[in-house]
Amino acid sequence: MKKSFSLFPRQFGFFPYIFLIYIGFPIYYLTKEAGLKQLLGFGMVLLFLVTYRQLYFSMGKRRFTYWLALQMGIVFILTLFYHLNYMFLGFFPANFIGWYRDKRVFYRGLICLVCVELFPFAFHLMKTKAFFTPAELIYFVPFLIIMLISPFGIRSMNRRMELEKELDKANKQIEELVKREERVRIARDLHDTLGHTLSLLTLKSQLVQRLTVVDPERARLEAKEMETTSRAALKQVRELVTDMRAATIAEELIQIQQILRAAGITYQYDGVHDFSKIPPFTQNIVGMCVREAATNVVKHSRATHCSVSINLSSEKMKVVIHDDGMGVPAKKKQFGNGLSGMVERLALIEGSLNLSNHNGAVLEMTVPIIKKAGGAAG
Question: What global pTM score does this model have?
Answer without folding.
Answer: 0.50
